[in-house]
Amino acid sequence: MPSHEKLIELLKGTNINYFHCKEIIEILKQTEKDTKGLFGSYGSQRMKDWQEIVRLYEKDNVYLAESAQLYVRNVNYEVPNVKKQMTKFEQQSDECLKRSNDLGKPEAQLLAEHAALLQQIGVKGENLREEFTQVLSGLPEIYAKSIKQIGTLDEALQLYATTTGQTKQQCLPITRHLIDFGNTTVYQYIHKEAPLSVEEPPIKLNLSAENEMKSNDNEIDFGDDNNGASSTISGEMIDFGELNLETGGEGGIDFGDAGDTGDIDWGIESAPTEGVEINFDIPIEEYGIVVEGAGMDGGVAKGDQAYTLLDSPSYRERFIDELYELEAFLRMRCYELRQVTASSNVMFSLMESISTHDEESLRKMLTNLDVILTEMSSEQTRHLFQLKHSPKYADLLASKLKQMLKAVEKIRTTKQVLKDRSVELKEQRVALTPVLEKLIAQTKDLQGKIEQDISKRYKNRIVNLLGGV
């Protein structure tokens, strides 16, 4: 085929019909005019071939049937299919964008929970091991704050003891001890005396390597090897002196010669014991012997007894149980007061036990009790208590914080993928726009030519094809 712009455009189409062939022949009339003979026929073979195609099309009006078939297919299938595809792309793009926006809610929720957990513990989350160790040092202040108003329970405790017939010290002993002495060690609570020194067990934070923000050297400290010459207790050095194994020296131990019979010479002259009177009345001070107290002068608090009452797992639970016991008693008293009326027959003993306190005073006691219970059950206190006494809790807590951040990162990645997919679908939808426009234009052109052809057959009467694009 000759190089012609219009011709190239016509041949690029996949659906070449009769009307295209007619246009090609019109173009060939210009390009092949040099081959035209005297009688108007063309010597060009390509011109003859296209004229033969048109002749076969016009035989039995085949071209009209084919054009009608192409027109119906475009109207019923091709154009609706492209429109449907464009609508699908647009819906998928909007859905991806909507899902991306919906993921913002769980992302914000996870970030809020992560920040709230860090705030509850009192750390920033940058170096968990160091921050956990640092925040645990503030536990004594937290315990002191939680029982700051425990003195307000004295009146309620006195009422409970009077009602139950117990002594002041027997009724809720841990609560009474905290009111009188504060948050002392378990040793002082048990032995009724303050220890000379406290050796609290070391804190063990069992953080796995993947949960630590910074790598730490895992060194084992076996202590100083003093060869048995000295020992350290509570920071004070105890000197056992030098062990002199030389024979015959002053202050030494004489084991005798190797050739002796094995008798030990203790450096004491033997003397006959018969007839010697022993005097038992010599003051003990003359011998330089010091008699220690029978435990009342204090000792060293070790192990579980080195913890304070609020820091000891067992005594802390017992104290909370005592608070709930006291709360139940006060609520029962409030209930009994509400049931007492002028006409009711109540026992005089019951009236005497509650006559000194009205419902308002009992509710004030309950309010003071609720304040202490709230402080004892606060989120920060529970987290720090578990961190100190449960080696695995630190690892679980660090793992939970890490999983939250991983989930947030996964959500952000998914959001970005959905946004990219939305943009891609929009581009595909836009790419179909010229295809649809071209298809509609071809269909309308085909419609117009069919109408013109049919109009010529009926003396140029106006013909309109209905149901087009």
Automatic annotation (TrEMBL):
InterPro entries given in the database record: CDK5RAP3
Transmembrane recorded as keyword: no
One Pfam family recorded for the sequence: CDK5RAP3
Coiled coil, from the record: 401-428
Annotated GO biological process: regulation of mitotic cell cycle
KW Coiled coil (keyword) present: yes
The entry's keywords: Coiled coil
GO cellular component, as recorded: endomembrane system
Family the UniProt entry places it in: Belongs to the CDK5RAP3 family.
Protein name per UniProt: CDK5RAP3-like protein
Originating organism: Musca domestica
